[in-house]
Specification:
heterodimer, A: alpha/beta, Rossmann fold, 7-stranded mixed β-sheet, 36% helix, globular, B: alpha/beta, 2 domains, 5-stranded mixed β-sheet, 15 strands, 20% strand
Chain lengths: 266, 361
């Protein structure tokens, strides 16, 4: 077979999403952010909402997300992305707004903002990448760091008596009446990536349908700060993170779940 | 002609926001300014003009909601009082760094810390010289009447959009809580998407339409060379404000031998003090800075050539006095008189301070 026959549009099985820019990603090899960015680009493109989608990037490794997905972006202060997204969404109800946040950003410094945005049922999508460590600042303990996990600020491993317990923030979020869809996914295998893509698509559809906050946690790795190679990091995640942060849907319902919401009667 | 009403300063801020075509308000309750959000909620402007009003979970959240909403070129405001403004300092710095127009109202109370709920002017430094981190300036307007509470909402937005910079109305519990007659502005409709596009189309995050380049609103620039270029641009913007936007009022300054400099509610008290002093035969005038940044350096410098001395009266431990001293130079004495912690001075004690500190009586 000639090369020209092989490189033929009819044989094309995969293409880079148009919304993914050609900028070289700054993420470390083995990091999950690149895959999640690609899925976001695919979903936004597939739903045809690139002209009305506004992303809010966090402080953390994904601060430069705006360099990679070709839509309008607003960069938020550390933890404040849900408040920024609230502001955008409230004065632009016809737009689709999402935040992209890590575990330090969302579950530590931004706990108040994420809880209240979700509780108000802001019509936004939250993409929450949880790798149980601060990546950008060099591997410090995150609220989601597992007990015994070694980080640069828990060099002997996280000790509950000193550092408290890992925070299952997604489980808390799922209790809030304002959330319509809360799920936990991963991107470490082709099957997981396909499932995650479906979840992201469902979350954006929920925002388009004004159903309240749609929340997608993606359990991911930080092989650099975990000090493992990418394959070992994936194994470590499956062995240690999945038992504590099990993948799957936590909530899939419409806004104002009657079980948790009871209005005053006059 | 506008409508004549008897209203509280805080209520007027709310009314003026609705009438000037504001798109959104984000706030958190704190004394002595809670009537702003309460008035808005009672007025339900979402039914009338489509304006959004949202009670946030904290001042931290409300300032970042403002940052988000301002990013789409909408006319948005927040309000708070001193401790709340301290919480907003992070967001204010981000707004200045990302060059987003918006309006912030500070109805000051006495500090530091939780302080008191009584009026104060102790946030002068915080408002005019930063407050948050980094080299930035706010456009700071200091109303001294309920009428100016009305007028400065529209003026604040005008300047904020002209310079793509946050503007602040720096007032206090006196003006916020007092009732006066006010001529309300006529209604201006909220801007349409087309008008916003025409005004701010080059930078807003409104969705990347028609294959234009994506817009990114950020204050981040890791390349220090480029960050310095950004900072130089900010500084030239502030210099332009100092050139073109200074506002002040001179009262009985023509024949003045002494000058009182005071802003906001202190200026109202000093207006009376000027009358009292003149009855005693002291030729004193009043210069009232209306923009605290840009500060009226030149008129103060000019008056320093004519008068024998200046008294700066403020409800703080002597903050604006430093700016007056810089503007006046060293040729005449520039003294300070003030009360602290929520105490409002009376005209009599101002005249006494004038006599003791400047005239030597």
């Amino acid at each position: 077979m000639e090369l020209a026959e092989i490189i033929n549009p009819n044989n094309l099985v995969y293409e880079k999403p148009k919304l993914l820019t050609d900028n070289t990603m700054h993420y470390c090899p083995g990091c999950g952010h690149g895959v999640v960015h690609k899925l976001l680009a695919e979903v936004i493109e597939e739903l045809g909402i690139e002209e009305k989608t506004i992303g809010v990037s966090p402080v953390g490794c994904a601060v430069f997300a705006y360099n990679y997905i070709d839509i309008d972006w607003q960069e938020a202060a550390h933890g404040r992305a849900p408040a920024v997204a609230t502001g955008i969404a409230r004065v632009n109800p016809d737009k689709v707004v999402f935040t992209y946040q890590g575990d330090g950003d969302l579950a530590s410094i931004g706990t108040a903002e994420i809880m209240h945005a979700c509780n108000r049922g802001e019509n936004i999508v939250v993409i929450f990448v949880n790798n149980a460590i601060y990546g950008m600042t060099g591997g410090q303990m995150a609220p989601t760091t597992l007990l015994g996990q070694v980080t640069s600020t828990t060099p002997m491993g996280r000790d509950a008596s000193r550092n408290g317990y890992p925070l299952k923030i997604t489980e808390l979020i799922a209790q809030l009446a304002g959330t319509s869809y809360v799920t936990r996914q991963s991107v470490h295998t082709p099957a997981a990536i396909r499932k995650c893509r479906k979840s992201i698509s469902k979350a954006f559809q929920a925002a388009l349908d004004k159903k309240g906050t749609a929340f997608v946690e993606i359990v991911s790795t930080c092989n650099m700060n975990w000090k493992l190679d990418p394959v070992e990091a994936n194994k470590w995640m499956e062995t240690n993170m999945f038992p504590f942060y099990p993948p799957g849907d936590l909530k899939d319902s419409s806004k104002n779940d009657p079980a948790s919401y009871s209005p005053l009667k006059n | 002609m506008g409508e004549l009403r008897l209203m509280k300063g805080n209520e007027v801020i709310a009314e003026a926001a609705i009438r000037c075509g504001c798109d959104g308000y984000f706030g958190y309750p704190i004394t002595p300014q809670s009537e702003i959000m309460e008035t808005l909620m009672e007025r339900e402007p979402w039914n009338e003009t489509g304006m959004v009003v949202l009670q946030a979970e904290s001042e931290v959240a409300s300032i970042h909601m403002l940052y988000g909403a301002a990013g789409s070129g909408k006319k948005v405001l927040t309000s708070s009082s001193s401790p709340g403004i301290s919480l907003m300092a992070e967001g204010i710095s981000y707004l200045a760094g990302a060059e987003l127009p918006c309006l912030i109202v500070n109805v000051q109370r006495g500090g530091p810390g939780l302080g008191t709920i009584q009026p104060s002017q102790a946030d002068y430094w915080q408002s005019t010289k930063g407050g948050g981190h980094g080299d930035y300036r706010l456009i700071v307007l200091a109303p001294s009447s309920v009428q100016e509470m009305n007028d400065f909402v529209e003026l604040g937005f005008k300047l904020a959009f002209k310079y793509r910079n946050p503007a602040m109305i720096l007032t206090d519990g006196v003006i916020g809580q007092m009732m006066e007659k006010v001529v309300l502005s006529d209604y201006i409709p909220r801007s349409t998407d087309e008008e916003i596009e025409a005004r701010c189309g080059s930078w807003i995050t409104s969705g990347r339409k028609n294959a234009r380049e994506r817009h990114v609103i950020t204050s981040l620039e890791l390349d220090s060379g480029r960050m310095e270029v950004n900072n130089i641009r900010f500084q030239s913007k502030y210099a332009k404000m100092e050139e073109d936007e200074v506002l002040y009022e001179e009262i009985q300054c023509e024949d003045a031998e002494y000058l009182i400099v005071a802003f906001g509610s202190s200026a109202r008290i000093c207006q009376k003090a000027v009358d009292v002093a003149r009855e005693k035969g002291i030729k004193v005038g009043l210069l009232r800075p209306i923009t605290l940044f840009p500060f009226p350096k030149k008129p103060i410098g000019e008056l320093a050539k004519k008068v024998k001395g200046m008294l700066v009266v403020e409800m703080n431990a002597g903050q604006m006095v430093e700016d007056v001293q810089l503007a006046a130079g060293c040729s005449i004495p520039v003294k300070y008189y003030g009360r602290l912690g929520g105490i409002v001075p009376g005209p009599g004690e101002v005249v006494q301070a004038l006599e003791q500190k400047l005239i030597g009586g």
